[in-house]
């Protein structure tokens, strides 16, 4: 099941894109191609695609349809980024060392919470 806030966004998009008043206006030829409605739909599509891709980068296929909170996604992406920077800067010599760094970070965080 999708996170509630993400589901709300997709529901809003679905409802907005299926507006009967706009369907009627489009069918009657009363809406020009450059109408803001179409720009809104394009923006929603772009954001929807972005969200789905970001979730999949963080948690794999179809992650958007699982219970991940947006903050969990951001935290994991930040961790990926931080680890890549450490590797790039030579702080970590091999990819295998990422596990050790992650374990050390968890240990340090746990000690700080005490």
From the structure above, extract its key features.
elongated; single chain; 72% helix; disordered C terminus; mainly alpha; 114 residues
List the helices and strands and how they pair.
Layout: H1 4-17, H2 20-27, H3 36-59, H4 70-88, H5 97-113
Given the helix and strand composition, which structural class is it? mainly alpha
Oligomer: single chain
How many discrete domains? 2
Overall body shape: elongated
Overall pLDDT: 83
Beta-strand share of residues? under 5%
C-alpha termini separation: 34 Å
Pick out the low-confidence regions: 105-114
Q: Helicity range of the residues?
A: over 70%
Number of strands: 0
Q: How would you explain this protein's 3D organization?
A:
This protein has helices at 4-17, 20-27, 36-59, 70-88, 97-113. It is mainly α. It folds into two domains: 1-68; 70-114, no CATH class. The radius of gyration is 21 Å and the shape is elongated. The two termini are 34 Å apart.
How would you concisely characterize the structure shown here?
By secondary structure, the protein is mainly alpha-helical. The protein folds into 2 domains: 68 residues; 45 residues, no CATH class. The chain is built from 5 helices and no strands.
